[in-house]
Design a protein that fits this description.
The protein is α+β, with helices and mostly antiparallel strands. Helix content is 41%, strand content 12%. Among the domains are: 89 residues, no CATH class; 152 residues, Jelly Rolls (Sandwich); 229 residues, no CATH class. The strands form seven sheets. The chain has a four-stranded antiparallel beta sheet with strand order 2-9-4-7, with no helix packed on it.
Amino acid sequence: MTPRSGRIRLMGCALGVLVASIGVVDSLSAIAPAQQPRGMPPGPRPVAPASVPVATHKAAPSPASTAGASAQQHRALLDRYCVACHNDRLKTANLSLQGLDLTQVPERADLWEKVIRKMRAGVMPPPDLPRPPLAQYDELRDFLEDEIDRVAATRTVPGSVVLHRLNRTEYANAVRDLLDLQIDVTTLLPPDDSANGFDNIAGSLTISPPLLESYTTAAARVARTAVGYWKSPTEATYLAASDASQNLPLEGMPFGTRGGIVARHSFSADGEYKFSIQNFGIGSFIPGEQLALIIDGERAYVWPYRGVGLAVGMTAETDGTLEVTIPVRAGSRLVGATFIATNYRPSLDIIRHYDRKSLENNTIPQLQNYPAIGYLRIQGPFNAQRPEDSASRRKVFTCHPRLPAQEGHAASAKALAAFARAPASRDEAARSRASSRRSSPGIEASEGGCAKQILTTLARRAYRRPASAKDLATLMTFFEEGRRGATFDDGVEFALRFLLASPQFLVRAEREPATARPGQPYRISDLELASRLSFFLWSSIPDDELIGVATQGRLSQPKVLKEQVRRMLADPRSDSLVASFAQQLLYLRNLPATSPDGIFYPNWDDELRQSLKRESELFFASIVREDRNILDLLTADYTFVNERLARHYGIPNVYGSRFRRVTLPTEMDYRRGLLGKGSFLAVTRTQNFRSSPVKRGVWVLENILGTPPPEPLPNVPALEETKSDDGRTLTLREQMTQHRANPTCAGCHKIMDPIGFALENLDADGSWRTRQGGDGGTTIDTRVKLYDGQEVDGPVGLRTALLRYSPQFVRMMIEKMMTYALGRGLEYTDMPTVRAIARDIAKDDNRFSAIVLNVVRSAQFQMRVKAREAAPGTP
């Protein structure tokens, strides 16, 4: 069997199993939340089992007469302040409130939830229109919520999701936890589509034949690396960022080094590997310069430099590339190419010491600069052997086949002696050992038992449940095919390929009980609950403890569930809440594309970009790890900086590349919370890297107030520098005033723009400024009147004004967390649960863990609803 034919057969088998699995659970793909008539029609609905803790609103219904009187009062308020725009004729924002019966609010919950959301954020009525007294405004909002929640407390509408494929992040984390193997998933799988702000939304994680082939190819590469593939070399190239400073030490490199590149690389086998390093900066020379290849913190090779900026062994004709071939043992290792910082004194031969490694944005032919690294390429292995031991092999080979007592000892001793003699003879030893195993049926039987033990363990972890007899039969078929004419390790590797491409691994599918009726809620199994929990908190597969508790049927017990949630939050794997949830919530994944013009932002480089990202990650992680009030995301008086970022912010006495927590001085009050973080300011810039009041206003509306504005009109031109009648360049605020002259645009911009203008002292790179256009520019005016009438001045005033809506920010965070946890967008039927959670966590000071615990305890997380059957004739 050739490798190509094996891969094709593997892919075909995986596709067949996938199709079959979809057939078994095809009813799961019919709906995203539960399909039902609009609103909450009367009639009995199954209630959640008593054993399932469900977040519910416990307000008692009001007497009918009182409800009727209250409804009449609120109807009058709506008619006075709302119906002038939201009537049957105008239907502003496609919404009419005319004639709606306020004694039957739950019947149109879908519509009233939209009204509640706008009222919670205070954005309606629009600016410049009359508003009711605040007390009456709040009473109407509370009345609508209470009416909906009162009825919702008697019903269970958990919703449902379609088949949930593992996304790239989940796949990489699952491989890490299953095989103790770090992989660069971006080289194996295409990016995932996002929806509702996240890339783990089931409805957007489609499965296509090309994608399945990518997963199959990835499975083959991962399996080879995990078991130890040594038969043919591979190649990987790691590029240094074009604007990366190489005058500063890199994280992960030893003290006393500067610049270069660092990458984590998986060495598949014990053998020789060729390292190629592209060197920039030819033509300059610094006495004592040395370039070092570092592997896991140890110097593996050092090149001393000589005149004209060339390392020993390198000539100008080599295009500045250094090469060395050295032996490396199998495993995941941190590899770096860096300069030994033997000389920091200024060099008179160098005109200017640029922080950037290249001068692409400001080329001066005569300019010399320090030597720097362009890329690191790793090729191999050569003269290799399959490793006897590595972290991934210890995860895979939980059993080793025994040789027969009579003839196995001699064969085993001969093989071990051959391995001990010299690396060149180890292939012979492997062939000898394989030959001795194939010579006896007793050996094959022993191997079969060992293979079954290995695959049982792997399948239990990968499939997130105990392996069935059918699972093992399929895996053993692949083992036997891979073992035929090869070694025991080859058989395990081939079975592992199938396991990693199997729908049981790639797809999270929850089976419907045979007794469930269409539209009926039911509780998911404990094993399915374990998967939901682990992919929520770890973006990965459950560990052995969680599977064990679930297998015993104890995970759904409230006390046990709470213990497991707290254990998982304390585990380092919960860093995925920062690496995945927070990065997407705060748009940190957009930072790599942030690259301003070096002429206008000469201080911007890759170190600053990475530092801004790391600051926000550490800030969010502190909320998680310290279990703080989530309102601290807006108000916390501390941040995390290294020397590079501290210099950018103007924070004194911070040295080195290590991040540390600092308390913000009073004069930097504008840096408090998310609105003062450079990452937020950088990702809300224009295409030409100018601060954007509009994008900042949109970000606040979406992520703090939870009321995203409608999509902008198509083909809206970007703002361009404009002159006034007297030849003066208009300020950004004056340009935006002209833009708002379009009545279609004015409504939204009146809400968004003041928020963004209050932040204009903070530039697009996160630095503080008082003038637009440099020292000689126009003084920035940050005085604004917000949509709700509050007058503020600058970032501090804006933050204070937004804290008036802190309850809405808490609800928004709950919604985001539920969306991420469930892998689906929320519907109006989920809003009573959101409010119930908000009421509950308020008793616990809005702590992060309280949100997580309440989301996990909710009916939405622990239950599903059986899909309703399509009507006859429906496609």
